[in-house]
Amino acid sequence: MKWISEFAKAFMGLFQSGAKTFIGWMSSIVPVVLLLLVLMNSIIAFVGEERMNRFARLASRNVLTRYLLLPFLSAFMLGNPMAFSMARFLPEFYKPSYYAAQAQFCHTSNGVFPHINPAELFVWMGIAQGIDKLGLNNMDLAIRYMLVGIVMNFIGGWVTDFTTAYVCRTTGVQLSKEVSVEEN
């Protein structure tokens, strides 16, 4: 009977822990993401959706701007997870590759720009603490990690282009390589 009681207590503890995490999110990351969403939509409204579509059209034509410039600007200006929302301006074919490059960039730039991915800053700080104990400069490591990350993020995005093309070819699905402009 004691085992059943302990199991029930532990089971309820999972939900209590989840509730504490949820309340923590409601007082930390959810308002930040909501305000970033409002900011992004305000910028889009100010700049104009047609100009944003034109910028995306230009950025999507070139593999370097698509997987180096756009992910960097998105991550730096919007942070994780809002940086992923910039994919809405890209053609359908390039969205998986943008996601691949963006997801990696949000991690590899955390040592230099901690505001990009504050929820996972503890990973970088654990590594930096070890570097500090060795008497080394952790900013040197952060810059190297970011530079290697930028190259690898680009390669990851580009390789995903080939993967997307393969999946489209084998499944018969056609994804557009042109920006779709919705009429309001």
UniProtKB/TrEMBL annotation:
One Pfam family of this chain: EII-GUT
Gene Ontology annotations of biological process type: phosphoenolpyruvate-dependent sugar phosphotransferase system
TM ranges: 22-47, 68-90, 142-168
Record's keyword terms, sorted: Membrane, Transmembrane, Transmembrane helix
Domain of life of the source: Bacteria
PROSITE patterns according to UniProt: PTS_EIIC_TYPE_5
Keyword Secreted annotated: no
GO cellular component: membrane
InterPro entries: PTS_IID_sorb (IPR004699)
NCBIfam families: EII-GUT
Protein name, UniProt field: PTS Gut IIC
Organism: Bombilactobacillus mellifer
